[in-house]
Amino acid sequence: MALSTAGTEPGTTTTTSARRRRTGRWIDQWDPEDSEFWESEGRPIARRNLIISIVVEHLGFTVWMLWSIVAVNLNNAGFSLTNSQLLWLVAMPSLVGAALRLPYTFAVGLFGGRNWTIVSGLLLLIPSVGLAWAVANPQIPFWMLLAIASTAGFGGGNFASSMTNISYFYPDREKGWALGLNAAGGNIGVAVVQAPFVVTAVITAGGGLVLWRAGLMWVPLILIAAFLAWKMMDNLGTAEADFATSAAAAKRKHTWVMSFLYIGTFGSFMGYAAAFPMLIKMEFPDVNPASYAFLGALVGSLARPFGGKWADRVGGARVTALSFVVMGGGVGFAVLALRAESFVFFLASFLLLFVATGVSNGSTYRMIPSIFRVTAGEGDEAQLRSKREAAAAIGIISALGAFGGFFVPRIYSMAADRAGTIEPAMLIYIGVYAVMLAVTWFFYLRPGAEMTKARV
Q1: What does DSSP say about strands 235-236 and 240-242: parallel, antiparallel, or unpaired?
Q2: N or C: which end of the chain has fewer CB within 10 A?
Q3: 243-255 pLDDT per residue, tens
Q4: Domain containing 150: what range?
Q5: CATH number of domain containing 114
Q6: Is there a domain that residue 9 lies in?
């Protein structure tokens, strides 16, 4: 989606001030492209909103991936679930989170960034409390357990609204860094929830397994984050939901091409992160998933900003294409590790794969505005329209790309059910990455192509 903002074009010298409405912490006039306003008043306000946004988004990702670490412990807590059912539990939050991303993006313009951050933060109480109740009642039917796990998808929608909101606080020259911090701060929540010294430590504190703590431990943090958003964040009155621009972006060919590629980059990251603890448990029963699973999400999150920086230097398409090659290689090495029954080799292969997903997340995000700038045509009005459509396209692409987080665990599950091993699924992924590499080359790296000349 896109938000329309009123303000001066870069290079103007008109000084503005952050005028507020009387209630609700609304700022009616906001122009970060005005250098004097930005340095004197805008930057501190934007930084404050960014910090709180990172906190809430981080909790969103944490709750979104909570079932990935809970699922591996359910059968030790009185449940009797198959591996297929457990993989359903880690896949459904990704499906719901992906579906919520687009409406969450529009919510910023409809209700205000601060207001929606408070609401979206408080919505995280539903999956947290629901999980605590569900795991304490092993007799509940599987469909009810699956429905409760699905509510963790509320955390997946937070990313879209958070990125949209922050993008309008910062000038173009600093937007990349701000959005990179915002995204990385959220993504690393996946590693935090899987780290052995967080959820696993809490549910095993004092001996035994007390699984309901995995949900309730986040309740006070969610309440504190919502309070901080209420106390310290701002709504921008100049940001409005622009459905027409979103519709225009949806008609662009490259919106759908990049959505397909983002399924392979961000979708792979979320899918592998969600399934990794279960994969370790299934293929290497003697290994404790909690000791190692978090490393994948950690290296993938940390690699994301570097992918964006590298893309700035050599072009996002080149970095994305190379990432698909490395991702295919990582999956191939993992297959060899399974055949060799080597956990160390398996872990190293997946860490390589996670790094490549992180790098490509950053590079694909960098490609989107570049692509729309190339196709915009001449003139200031055309370039302004391209910026708005690029922002709208990012909302669509991020929503569709997140569906990969659902497909990856489900393909693993189907392969394990039918073949007794996840190897067929991994061979499918190698083929998918080969197709995505070909698509990247055809549209953005093919000799003589318009996008190749522009080094998008």
Answers
A1: unpaired
A2: C
A3: 888 898 899 999 9
A4: 21-238
A5: 1.20.1250.20
A6: no
Q: Provide the pLDDT for residue 372.
A: 86
SS (H, E, C) the chain: CEEECCCCCCCCCCCCCCCECCCCCEECCCCCCCHHHHHHHHHHHHHHHHHHHHHHHHHHHHHHCHHHHHHHHHHHHCCCCCHHHHHHHHHHHHHHHHHHHHHHHHHHHHHCHHHHHHHHHHCCHHHHHHHHHHHCCCCCCHHHHHHHHHHHHHHHHHHHHHHHHHHCCCCHHHHHHHHHHHHHHHHHHHHHHHCCCCHHHHHHCCCCCCCCHHHHCCHHHHHHHHHHHHHHCCEECCCEEEHHHHHHHHCCHHHHHHHHHHHHHHHHHHHHHHHHHHHHHHHCCCCCHHHCCHHHHHHHHHHHHHHHHHHHHHCHHHHHHHHHHHHHHHHHHHHHHHHHCCHHHHHHHHHHHHHHHHHHHHHHHHHHHHHHHHCCCCCHHHHHHHHHHHHHHHHHHHHHHCCHHHHHHHHHHHHHHHHCCCHHHHHHHHHHHHHHHHHHHHHHHCCCCHHHHHCC
Note whether residue 101 is domain-resident. Answer: yes
* 13 assigned to some structural domain: no
Is 218 part of any domain?
A: yes
Domain boundary among 238, 253, 269: 238
User: What are the per-10-residue average pLDDT scores of the chain (456 residues)?
Assistant: 41 51 77 90 94 95 95 94 94 95 88 94 97 96 97 93 86 78 86 92 92 96 97 87 85 94 94 94 93 94 86 90 97 96 97 95 87 80 78 86 92 91 94 97 92 87
Can you read off the two tokens belonging to residue 89? 């539990």
- Residue appearing with tokens 């507020």: 20
My answer on whether 222 and 168 are in the same domain is yes
